[in-house]
Amino acid sequence: MKSLFVLILVSLVVGISAFLIFLLAGKKQQFDDIEGPKYRMMNDDDDDLLNKPKK
């Protein structure tokens, strides 16, 4: 029975900490740019690879 209370306490701590990390990420505006990634994946960075001198 004692282990059940420990598991409940651990799960509450993990859940609350994950929720607080989510709120912190939202406060730091990590989720604001929803349009950027779809355009960023279209950027072609092969020009940098072609212009590097060979060793």
Which terms would index this structure?
elongated, mainly alpha, 55 residues, 3 helices
Description:
The structure is a single chain. By secondary structure, the chain is mainly α. It contains three helices and no strands. The chain has helices at residues 2-27, 36-40, 46-51. The radius of gyration is 22 Å and the shape is elongated. The termini are far apart.
Task: Indicate the topology.
Blueprint: H1 2-27, H2 36-40, H3 46-51
Short description:
With 55 residues, the protein is mostly helical.
Q: What is the number of E strands?
A: 0
CA distance, first residue to last residue: 66 Å
Beta-strand share of residues: under 5%
The helix/strand series, from N terminus to C terminus, equals HHH
Low-confidence stretches: none
Average pLDDT level: 84
Please identify the structural class as seen in this structure.
Answer: mainly alpha
| Largest sheet: number of strands, sense, barrel closure | none
Helix content: 55-70%
**What would the principal axes of the Cα set say about the shape?**
elongated
Number of helices: 3
- What is the CA-based Rg, rounded? 22 Å
